[in-house]
Specification:
The protein has 13 helices and 27 strands. The chain folds into 3 domains: 8-180 and 264-375, Alpha/Beta hydrolase fold, catalytic domain (Rossmann fold, 3-Layer(aba) Sandwich), CATH 3.40.50; 189-255, alpha-amino acid ester hydrolase ( Helical cap domain) (Orthogonal Bundle), CATH 1.10.3020; 384-602, Jelly Rolls (Sandwich), CATH 2.60.120. Helices cover 19% and strands 29% of the residues. Helix 11 (287-297) links the parallel strand 11 and strand 12 (306-311). It has helices at residues 8-11, 78-82, 84-89, 125-139, 154-161, 196-207, 221-227, 231-238, 244-251, 257-262, 287-297, 334-352, 445-448, and strands at residues 14-17, 20-23, 28-36, 42-50, 60-67, 92-97, 143-152, 170-176, 189-190, 193-194, 275-280, 306-311, 324-325, 328-329, 362-366, 371-375, 384-391, 397-398, 407-413, 453-457, 465-479, 485-493, 506-515, 534-547, 552-558, 587-592, 596-602. It starts with 7 loop residues before the first helix and ends with a strand. It has 605 residues and is of the alpha+beta class. The protein is globular.
Amino acid sequence: MVRLAVAGWAVGMMLAVGGCLTAGAMDYVRSEAMVPMRDGVRLHVVILRPVGSETAGDPLPFLMERTPYGVEGASVDSPGTRKPELAASGYIFVYEDIRGRYGSEGRFVMNRAIVTHRTKKDVDETTDTRDTIDWLLKHVANNSGRVGVMGVSYPGFLAMSAGIDAHPAVKAISPQAPMTNVWMGDDFFHNGAFRETYGFDYVQQLEAQKTDVRTESREDTFDFFLRNGNFAGAAKAAGMEKLPTAKLFLTQPEYTKFWQAMAVEKHLTKVEVPTLEVGGWWDQEDMWGTQAEYAALEPHDAGHEVFMVLGPWNHGGWAGAGRELGEIQFGEATGVEYRMTLEFPFFEKYLKGRAGFDLKDVASFRTGLNKWERYEAWPPKEGFREAKLYLRQGGGLGFEAPVGVGVAASYVSDPADPVPYRKRPIQATYGTGSLWRTWLVEDQRFVSGRKDLANFETPVLDRDVTVTGDVVADLFASTTGSDGDFVVKLIDVYPEDAPDGMAGYQLMVVDEIFRGRYGKSFERPEALTPGKVTEFKWSLHGTDHTFLKGHRMMVEVQSSWFPLYDRNPQTFVPNIMTAPASAYQKQTVKIYAGSRIEFEEPVRE
């Protein structure tokens, strides 16, 4: 098992307690300020620094997080609670409300687009970051003139913004699960399929008031969205149809210039500062962004300053111990290991000039075998080869291409009875008792017996099979309708005698949806030809997972995933957001032999 060593002096500053780490003795003092931006708007910041450091000791670097979620609650205990390893070393922690949120002035714009050809009057998150840093350098005593920026999710998007047209003082950034392209693969759409419940809840949370109030539901959201027919009906029922982003959902469901302008990855044409990307294999919100940003930056990384860590976590799960996720156990405190051996020495190196960070490119936690791996590229190339897993007639799954291309499976997809994406009742995304955070590791047996999907399985494996890198579904399918969705899941099926309550467990390893109307273009949807065999090819995202000997591999194909994704009427309409009830019709879907899953596997000696 790969272990990474952290400098001995740093270990001495930490105390392991029940699988967590707490900072050594260092007290912090709190202050607040309203920081002026170039257009006169003032942003609210909370500054936390070690007691006495403003007048004595070595100058300290800044660690900044910008957020839409409010910083008023940041207290003198926050550094030691949120980042105990870094707090023990000593930093000036800065937390800022972005414009229009909580204590900051100005107008909030969701994922405000970066201005490409900026004038002196233009503002975006890059300019607000620069203006904040200018003020901090001038007004916070005894600082070292070096700044690190980090954040998870929306703050991850803001951290990446700090590395675009970067202030000279920014020496390191860590975008963690960053919102990067909210249409292509992050929060609001995946390959054209609308994430209905998430968009519904999140837009109300951020745009219905200046603070973020979580949406609650008194009923199963499955019933709520089914009853209201389409997103227009659901938005009207909630009185949210006039919120800015909800209006965009309703009027611009395609990949329009508006959504394209919001995409961050197109701005990543050079490496301006050392960058540590972080993501989780089972991130229920922003798995796409981490790997997309790395893929955009890595070709420009002549100085070897772009790094990525991928681990067995859900959204932001690396902040905890990381020993388990739902029912899945990892055998070690993966979150603690990441923070101690990667995040902590990364900032120590680039903000304080200390040794200890030795990652060359990518650190990946290989699930199944439960061990850390290091690679010099992602997807890894050296020591790996391409592999394909073919769907066969009769529900078989194997590594050899089948003879012939007949129908492998057929099912009837009924919009009136869609496949749920997690066990019912389904609470609001962040509502009381919600299982949202761990749904990606939920046992899939709750749906695998349904008749409106197709399952393909290998025999019991006689050897370990490792699937690494970007997993791609190459599906040949037809539908009697003129539109349709395709969901593909790659599942690890545990043996019936597996211990610790895992007998027969069906664990999704990777999974993703594709909306059929976008088979040729995300900008210009087209109707499918009923009955025509069509190839659909899309990424199921990256993984590093070993299917152990004695397990089975399963591929599950279905045509709804409700209500996380809105129902496809399965007849082509100009705008699914406003589709009439008559458009929702049963259709027969056929999956053809020769469809396959493509991935990389280690070369066997």
